[in-house]
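Risk register update: the risk of archive-format incompatibility is retired. Evidence:
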Amino acid sequence: MGRPEIVHPPVEDARAEHARYWRSSGLPGTELLTARFVTTSFVRHTHPTYTIGVITGGIEEFAHERGHARVGPGGLAVVGPGEVHTGHAGVPEGWSYRVFYPAPEVVEDVARELGMRGTPAFTESGIDAPEAARVLARAHLAAERGEPLAASAHARRGLGMLLSSHGRERAVAPAGHAARPEVALARDLLAARLVDPPTLEELAAGVGLRPFTLVRAFREAYGLPPHAYLNQLRVDRARALLRSGRGAGEVAAEVGFADQPHLTRHFRRHLGVPPGAYQRAILAS
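Archived output:
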């Protein structure tokens, strides 16, 4: 069984970075990223989609809900929707990868064909599945070349292979690990008040908990403390507004960031690119 096809970038400065998000007509419900990162380091964050990355060079290291992963060429870096994770270079030369961000319904559709129910999860985050990675790399390259039929065929086959070898039906969380009603209410309050969020004391009082108790329970339930979760909500909302064509300055104000540089700083920490570059690439694809 061969390793994935590695697409080498042109010879460039050893510290050079590049990243591009886009969409392909052959892969509806999916964003794509091709990137090389060296000094970029991602803070603890989540995506509303799955993240399935084929590492094509270097090594990526990342923390996730079950521990830590270190993935090199031919390996797959995989996290599920809402799963808190980080990301940084595992070697001085950084890492390059091709990433799929399929919406949950995209993965669920393939899983149903395999007889799985509900929203599937994966048994690992750093996955060694050479044949699936090779097929997914082909899909990504076909999308980049503007070949929608090949992209969709390879992506569906590769995702099916990955689910067959490393997928599982998501287990229902035990009652003891479910979010307390007060914590779920706090999350809803933050989502409703992106522009004028309450202080921690106000948020805790509004749901009937002490501040330290709320922070601890919130982190246990959602993987992030309330202030970091608020920034995650803002970035997710900004991403959707940018895809609709809204200007970055307008978006920053609408989601509660102080100004456009404030939006840019958080956007880069979550996605690796500034909002303007993200928007231009997505709208041009």
